[in-house]
DNA sequence: GGTGCCGGGAG
DNA sequence: CTCCCGGCACC
């Protein structure tokens, strides 16, 4: 679903997803309230909880139908199971009167015609999700409202739209989005890449990670206790845990933009990925953690700024590729004007957190440089690096200490322990500006004949495997 | 355009 | 890991 602004369109889409699951335009899950004689429609709220499968789905007009109850056209009848007062009975939904939301249900067993009011879940969802759509409130009963709210929240989180407007009740703790999400909308392709990192991942955790959209300082209200107090989250962990934040990597990761938040406190360049994290950082590290001061809560907003991090494919501008340049560069631009912040310096992590986080992710703390093909074998070299300084390692120094390697052969740089580096680390790697070795780009084309030439393309099966795989030929080495 | 092969995806 | 292929640099 991408980063589409959470508009009525996506509501409609969500609703259609829902209806797809439940059977298109079915009444399954529809809550109806029977007026008058049957019940008061509140506590004993009857529910249509099953729909026989033979009903014919109607084409779904896009938006209107998400407001108008999904219901067969008057000419069609839809069989439903209706429960009320603990009793279950089948019925035939005969007629729907949209203006009044009334549904006429025929219950043959009781030879009863009943009239129900209709409230279906997507509508509840819509109501809770978009406060720009005016939906009249039908019940004052809080419990029923909560039911719908919960259902809506579940659906909302399932649909994984990161830009979620706060429900009208506004106690949910989901901060409202605002214009700062524009880069996300406009990038159009945010669901990939790093996006992998910040775009609405489905946080398995129970903590604050709402499908973390970048939500900006616009709403000082939202950093209330609901967000900041969970004991298990300490900002950095939740912000950079690669396992929580990693979502299945999409195919391409070009031009993805993610928004990070940088602490503006003097001498603190800490960059976090969530607004909550940065606020907590500012609050705890700089403002002091004096609990309930409202003023402090507001002040947090002034001490961080939003940074857009754009990840782009490597342009390969130079004629040489350094032996270690393996990552795509990240272009970091400031959303708010602060030219000196073009480089994101390594975050000043709380030492305990930093060491624990890094030592967990890179226990052996070695740079491991080696050739990656057997036929390119070279002695592998390990450079011990303290995890604490690994982001600021001087590449020039590091490489100068290496024995002279053929620059074209030793091109893979990786941790000795296979583990996905967090996007944070990745960006630091790039910021650390690897050295450019002013020598040949790639392997100089060999003079020797290659399998392709020797056997021809029609005898591809006789090629060496490397040639077959479009790798450097192993059979006719230079 | 053909070739060699790097980088990365899929399974 | 194997297998495959897009895409780039070189010819």
From TrEMBL:
GO molecular function: DNA binding; zinc ion binding
Sorted UniProt keywords: DNA-binding, Metal-binding, Nucleus, Transcription, Transcription regulation, Zinc, Zinc-finger
Region feature (Disordered): 55-76, 162-249
InterPro entries for the chain: CR1/CR2-DNA-binding_regulator (IPR052253), Znf_C2H2_type (IPR013087)
Nucleus as UniProt keyword: yes
Subcellular location: Nucleus
Chief location category: nucleus
Cellular component GO terms held in the UniProt record: nucleus
Biased composition (Low complexity): 190-207
Domain C2H2-type: 261-291
PROSITE patterns recorded: ZINC_FINGER_C2H2_1, ZINC_FINGER_C2H2_2
Protein's recorded name: Zinc finger protein 395
Organism lineage string: Eukaryota, Metazoa, Chordata, Craniata, Vertebrata
């Amino acid at each position: 679903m991408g980063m589409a602004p959470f508009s009525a369109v996506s509501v409609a889409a969500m609703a259609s997803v829902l209806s797809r699951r439940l059977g298109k335009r079915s009444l399954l899950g529809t809550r109806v309230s029977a007026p008058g004689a049957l019940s008061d429609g509140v506590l004993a709220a009857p529910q249509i909880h099953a729909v026989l499968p033979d009903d014919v789905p109607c084409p779904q007009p896009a938006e209107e139908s998400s407001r108008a109850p999904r219901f067969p056209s008057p000419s069609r009848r839809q069989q439903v199971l209706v429960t009320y007062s603990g009793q279950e009975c089948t019925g035939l939904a005969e007629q729907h009167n949209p203006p009044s939301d009334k549904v006429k249900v025929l219950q043959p067993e009781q030879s009863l015609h009943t009239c129900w009011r209709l409230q279906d879940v997507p509508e509840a969802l819509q109501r809770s999700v978009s406060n720009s759509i005016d939906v009249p409130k039908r019940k004052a009963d809080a419990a029923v409202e909560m039911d719908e709210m919960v259902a809506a929240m579940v659906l909302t989180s399932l649909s994984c739209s990161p830009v979620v407007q706060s429900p009208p009740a506004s106690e949910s703790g989901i901060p409202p989005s605002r214009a700062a999400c524009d880069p996300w909308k406009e990038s159009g392709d945010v669901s990939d890449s790093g996006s992998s990192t910040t775009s609405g991942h489905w946080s398995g955790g129970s903590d604050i990670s709402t499908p973390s959209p970048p939500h900006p300082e616009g709403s000082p209200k939202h950093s209330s206790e609901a967000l900041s107090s969970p004991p298990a989250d300490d900002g950095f962990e939740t912000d950079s845990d690669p396992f929580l934040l990693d979502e299945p990597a999409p195919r391409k990761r070009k031009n993805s933009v993610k928004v990070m938040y940088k602490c503006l406190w003097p001498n603190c360049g800490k960059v976090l990925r969530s607004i909550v994290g940065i606020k907590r950082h500012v609050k705890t590290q700089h403002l002091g953690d004096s609990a309930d001061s409202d003023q402090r809560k507001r002040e947090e907003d002034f001490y961080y700024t939003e940074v857009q991090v754009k990840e782009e494919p490597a342009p390969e501008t130079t004629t040489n590729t350094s032996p270690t340049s393996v990552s795509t560069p990240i272009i970091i631009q400031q959303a708010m004007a602060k030219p000196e912040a073009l480089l994101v310096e390594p975050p000043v992590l709380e030492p305990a957190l930093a060491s624990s986080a890094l030592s967990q992710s890179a226990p052996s703390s070695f740079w491991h440089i080696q050739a990656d093909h057997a036929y390119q074998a070279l002695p592998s070299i390990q450079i011990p690096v303290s995890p604490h300084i690994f982001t600021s390692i001087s590449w020039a120094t590091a490489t100068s200490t290496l024995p002279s390697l053929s620059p074209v052969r030793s091109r893979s740089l990786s941790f000795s322990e296979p583990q996905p580096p967090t996007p944070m680390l990745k960006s630091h790697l790039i910021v650390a500006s690897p050295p450019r070795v002013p020598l040949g780009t790639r392997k100089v084309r060999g003079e020797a004949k290659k399998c392709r030439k020797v056997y021809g393309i029609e005898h591809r099966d006789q090629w060496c495997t490397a040639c077959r795989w479009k790798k450097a030929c192993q059979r006719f080495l230079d």
